Amino acid sequence: MEPIVSAQGLVKRYGDFTAVAGIDFETRPGECFGLLGPNGAGKTSTVGMLTCTLPLSGGDLRIFGLDARSHPREIKARLGVCPQESNLDTDFTLTQNLTVYARYFDIPQGEALARAKELIARFRLEDKADACVDDLSGGLRRRLLVARTLVNRPELVVLDEPTTGLDPQSKHQIWDEVRAMKAAGSSILLTTHYMEEAALLCDRLIIIDAGRVLEAGDPCGLISKHVGGIGTLEDVFLKLTGKALRE
Amino acid sequence: MNPGLVSRRCLHVWRRNYDVSRLTWKTNVLPPLIEPLLYIFAFGFGLGVYVQHIQYQGRSFEYLTYLAPGMIAVGTMFHAIFECMYGSFVRMRYQKTFEATLCTPLLIEDILAGELLWGATKGVFGGLAVLVVSACFGLTAWPHALLVLPVALVSGLMFAGFGLLFAAVSPYIDNLNLPTFLFINPMFLFSGTFFPLDGMPLWLRALSRLLPLTHVADLMRASTTGLLNAGLLSSALYLLVLTPLVCGYAMWRMKRRLIK
């Protein structure tokens, strides 16, 4: 089975600072793959390279078998990216946010509107369909962000810390959506610093810190390997890094 | 910065900005129409009482006939440059529109080209608004005045380029006051917009010839009065050379700022 993402020796430098210091991983079709690590571990830089919005400083990155350096447009057309912070268009209503975004993918207007309606219903945003983004609560805004991610029916969904800063209820709603996407066979790449989230959603994951991969595997396997099956991913992380997880 | 990377998808960015402007059309359409009316009333009925005629290139013009093309040039400049200074800065920095759009098949080159085209469109609109008002007062010679359109298009793109460049190099939105006071306001006053340059000291005239708006004003004046002369060729050449240079440099600086 050809991997969805194949990263080898991935490096990202900003001047003298190395954010990603050579990481390797592969994700398989239909799985939810996690990048787990504390703030500043290099997750967002990795996501930037994966989404072809940041140039690589070194290494090799292929997505859908395409080279990220030479085929950014083709790759981005097949990706759905949910950013860490809202970049919804505050000049538009919820529906318009989805239709304008769909236009960037060359989706015809009629089809865009149909998809917007479908997503608004699926994410239970009907009451707010014609409201402005500024009037939404944080939880609703995140739901719209996730809905927007799906507007081009992506083959890989990239969720960058999708529940950071959310109340428990909104968090669970997002988790339900991710599970629904998984059930529908979507490939997902998820970054998080919540161990609980990683354990719940990810089939396989890598734990990264300071731009390096510390460990790779499935959540249960990692727990049994490092803390004898008694404990959580958090315990695994603490054992590996020797420090408490920063919020 | 590789201009070859710009694709037709840049029109999606243009369209997004157009859609926003349609939502707020009242505030977008009225000022460009009211502003020239204010100038025409203030200068025509105020200053025009004292200065009925003005000498320009060896001919005598009614003051308002002289002033109108200057205001067309100013309208084009203001609307194009401010759109890509403040408008683009807000979309880049505060609304994070560029960031969101980058996660679609568009490249940064498409986004910036779309911004520049939109700025140029606003410039054309700003220029045409003054043209319409001027025509209502009988201040334009037809059909020459149709030449305002191509001049507004090229100069609109050039001023959009300047605007985007200022947005690219300004760390904070407040820094944009600097090019306003050091570049836009001097141009507004010293580009043959309100009065001919001929009466000014030689050094000031030489400086004025360097300013882009001087050449735009000359071309606009030739269009609305129908008085064509050989000197216009150098002004046209000035615009055609400077426009791609400024736009290319602005896109390069903005890309360097955004893509680390």
Describe the protein in words.
The complex is a heterodimer of chains A (247) and B (260). Chain A has 247 residues and is of the alpha/beta class. Chain A folds into 2 domains: 1-78 and 156-165 and 183-247, 3-Layer(aba) Sandwich (Rossmann fold), CATH 3.40.50; 85-154, Ribonucleotide Reductase Protein R1, domain 1 (Orthogonal Bundle). Chain A has helices at residues 43-50, 72-77, 94-104, 109-122, 138-149, 168-183, 195-201, 219-227, 233-241, and strands spanning 5-14, 17-27, 32-36, 58-63, 66-67, 79-82, 156-160, 187-192, 204-209, 212-217. In chain A, the strands form 2 sheets. Chain A has a 6-stranded mixed beta sheet, sandwiched between helices. In chain A, strands 2-1-4-5 form a 4-stranded antiparallel beta sheet. In chain A, helix 3 (94-104) packs across helix 4 (109-122) and helix 5 (138-149) runs parallel beside helix 6. The radius of gyration of chain A is 18 Å and the shape is globular. Chain A starts with a strand and ends in a 6-residue tail after the last helix. The relative contact order of chain A is 0.17. Chain B is mainly alpha-helical and 260 residues long. In chain B, 73% of the residues lie in helices and 3% in strands. Chain B has helices at 10-23, 25-46, 63-94, 97-102, 108-136, 148-169, 177-190, 202-210, 212-225, 231-258; strands spanning 53-56, 59-62. In chain B, strands 1-2 form a two-stranded antiparallel sheet. In chain B, strand 1 (53-56) and strand 2 (59-62) form a beta hairpin. In chain B, helix 6 (148-169) packs antiparallel against helix 9 and helix 9 (212-225) crosses helix 10. Classes of the chains: A alpha/beta (247), B mainly alpha (260).
